[in-house]
Amino acid sequence: MQTLVITLGPQDSWEDEKMRSKIKIAAEVLRKGGLVAFPTETVYGLGANALDSKAVKKIFEVKVRPADNPLIVHIASKAEVYKLASEVPKEAEELMDAFWPGPLTLILKKSEIVPSTTTGGLDTVAIRMPAHKIALTLIEESKVPVAAPSANLSGKPSPTSGEHVIRDLYGKIDVIIDAGETQIGLESTVLDLTVDPPTILRPGGITPEDLERLLGEVQVHPAVEGRKVKTIVKSPGMKYRHYAPNADVIVVEGNTEKVNEKIRELITKYKREGKKIGVMVTDMRQRYGADVTKIIGNDFETIARNLFKTLREFDEEDVDIIIAEGIESVGLGLAIMNRLKRASYKIIKA
Known about the structure:
350 residues; alpha/beta; DHBP synthase; Rossmann fold; 2 domains; five-stranded parallel sheet; 16 strands; globular
């Protein structure tokens, strides 16, 4: 397949007619049942007409994604919610007013127009309005709701730049809109409003604390902490291993001194086995002597923005083992640790 790459760099004026004329090309592809990768404020999405089962099936085929893993439907107008959902509770309206456009996905009872292909066979639908001019313009111009998981091969680190998408999907989809790097770097928070109390199924840029200030009691699903539970998968990122690089990821949690000691112990062990070792740290005060050391940042926003990019960089360095320092699971830290645990094959409590 010949993939059209539309470049709309971060320095471009996203308001002008030249930008809109380029996006109209991609919108026409969506209307005709094609696949378009596009930027959002979180990560890049791989979009198809959410109401076209044949188009949506192409997403699953290209990503090699399990059919029971539901997709998120992206919209450009709150009015679309009332078409896609059969029930819109008062809490949903309050959340839309407070956090949309933004990195919050709401799970609601679906209407009849939403095909089961999009929802993974469930009677619920996940909906969000992205806070990104290009994404919103694409949806507006296509005149259809857009189902879009992350624009990568299933299970691999999510793409946070157009370059990542081109590496993963060039020649496999119709259009890639390259607009540089994303702002947040982690996928949206997914909140299930079909249960009481509302339950976070996947943490993201809107934190539990943000939601509690508006709603009062909010639960966090046990799967968020990496625990294996038998449950209906209502959200991406709950059931399958996600976000994983080629290397094995080990996450070390605990107090700083014990984490440092454990990481040194692991490096010694794997060096004896002839492994190439990468370490992901929050600063350079700890020099562990790994083959590759990458600083991911020392605040939650920076760490979130750099996480997937850094995992991909380790793959480029051909490391065998990635050892990551754990961080505190509060605020945005909960989402960061959720992604690390989903990417890992081993979690160690130091």
